[in-house]
Specification:
The protein has a domain at about 55-105: 2-Layer Sandwich (Alpha-Beta Plaits), CATH 3.30.70.1530. Helices cover about 40% and strands about 15% of the residues. It has three helices and three strands. It has helices at about 10-30, 60-75, 95-105, and strands spanning about 55-60, 80, 90. The longest helix has 22 residues, at about 10-30. About 15% of the residues are buried.
Length: about 110
C-alpha cells in the first residue's frame, strides 16, 4: 500500500488555473474603480449646493416658491434651498443661470 505524496503536474496546474480565474473574477467584481471620479466637496462653495448655482434669494419659503414656479413656467429647471439667516435660495444649473436672470428680471 503506497501513497503517492507528490502531486501530478496536471493537478497543480489545474489548481493554479482555478485560483487565477477566481482572483480575476473577484478583482473584476470588487476591484477598485480608480478610473471613476467621485464628486468631492468644493471648498469654495460656501453653501455646498454642488452642481447648482444660486440666482437669487427670497425672504421666505412662499416667495422662493413663487420665483421657482416662475422659472419653471419659462422652462428653467429650478429648486429652492434654505440659505443662511433664514432666507431661501433659488438654485439653477450653471447652464441655466443666464436664462434664469432674464426671467427673474422681467416684471410680472
Amino acid at each position: 500500500m503506497s501513497v503517492e505524496v507528490v502531486p501530478r503536474i496536471g493537478e497543480v496546474i489545474g489548481v493554479l488555473l482555478a485560483l487565477g480565474v477566481l482572483v480575476l473574477l473577484l478583482r473584476w467584481t470588487f476591484g477598485h474603480h480608480k478610473n471613476v471620479t467621485l464628486p468631492t466637496d468644493d471648498p469654495d462653495d460656501p453653501v455646498a449646493t454642488g452642481l447648482l448655482t444660486e440666482v437669487t434669494r427670497a425672504p421666505g419659503p412662499d416667495a422662493a416658491r413663487v420665483l421657482r414656479d416662475r422659472l419653471r413656467s419659462e422652462g428653467v429647471r429650478a429648486t429652492v434651498s434654505r440659505a443662511d439667516g433664514g432666507a431661501y435660495a433659488v438654485l439653477v444649473f450653471p447652464q441655466d443661470v443666464a436664462d434664469a436672470k432674464v426671467v427673474l428680471s422681467l416684471d410680472r
